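INTERNAL AUDIT FORM
Audit reference: QA-55
Scope: verify that the stored structure record matches its stored sequence.
Auditor: D.O.
Record contents follow.
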Amino acid sequence: MSVRRPEPARSGVSTRVVALLTAAAFINAVDRGNLATAGPLILDQFGLTNAQLGVLLSAFFWTYAPGQLPAGLIAERLNPRWVLAAGLGIWGIATALTGLANGFMTILVLRLLLGVGESVMYPASFKILARDAREGQRGRANGFLSAAQFFGPAFGTFVGALVMVSLGWRFFFLMFGCASLLWLWPWLRTPAEPTPQVFRDAPAGPSTAMTLRRRELWGACIGQFCEAYALYLVLSWLPVYLVRARGFSVPMMAQFGAGVYVLSALAAIVSGWVSDRWLVAGARCSRVRMAAVLTGFIGVAVCMSACALAGPLGSLLAMVGCGISLGILLTAIFASVQTLAGAGAAARWMGVQNLCANVAGIAAPVITGLVVDRTGTFSAGFLIAASLAVLGIFAYGLIVREVEPVRWPTSGRSSGVAPAGEETIAADGHG
């Protein structure tokens, strides 16, 4: 039996890298979500139907979702820092050009290009965090990454809506698309994290076929599809829901919508911090991650049902609760991927999981738009999301079952997790 000698504990991922990944996730969220904020204005300017707007909102995912698989492979084989930089350059340019669009078809093409660029964001980021972050850091790191997904829409909904009302939606797309490219300067000047000896010596990682055979992957894929359906329903339709169904003015919509997203972001940060403290106190990783996942799914199911069945005030309060639940849930799902897959498979695993999740990004906007056109209300759309949240509970509880590092066979071993019968260093640098 071979024994791999433990190395000294790693210092973990740097604050600068986490901050820049958070900034990239913020830019990512604003650039993909600003079309939803502009939705009421674009509907009127181009004379679109709700179904046509639903197509535009979902078009991003037509390339973003299938792009997850090649993005995961590329991030495993190339430097994920450079992969992320290239992707951000593409999506920043696509955002800026949307401000020059002259109709439905031009916006459609640019949303497809946006999806290509943004497809590398999470496979590359998860590769970096799985490789460099200690287990006791992942809650906070992923909390900030998740929070950025909500601060982005908060900024886009509040600031974006006010800018669009004052200066037009075209100006906002041009301005923010160009500003996005400024992120490249500090990122490319950030020193690379030193790769721990245990990962330099490890094999390249499990094959794609080996990864696809894991029960835990498919349970997590089902679970994130269910989470993503509710998330993208909110991200895509909240502005139109507040304006058309609840009679909000655009400034009122901006304030309430931004408030929901800010609460989601704060919930993500707090839940990530709590999970790290719980782990440091000696709790099992699986218990910590599963508790957060199940709490989030239960909250989404209850609150989405209330959005459909409650009166005007109750439905707005339920939307706030749904936002908080999504913040808790997204952080836990992100951290779980890195724990399960390990450093050698995180990008590939996240590519597959994010592909499945973003099928929901294609489905939720279109299905909701069709439901609203047919029924005249959002109630059935909310009930669909609530039902899927219940399915997510079963996916994690019965299929994933334990959120612990996968023991890859010797031929594909990586991420510091040894097969049975062989000692190695754990993911946090301790034997």
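Auditor finding: record pair retrieved intact. The mean pLDDT is 80.
Action required: none
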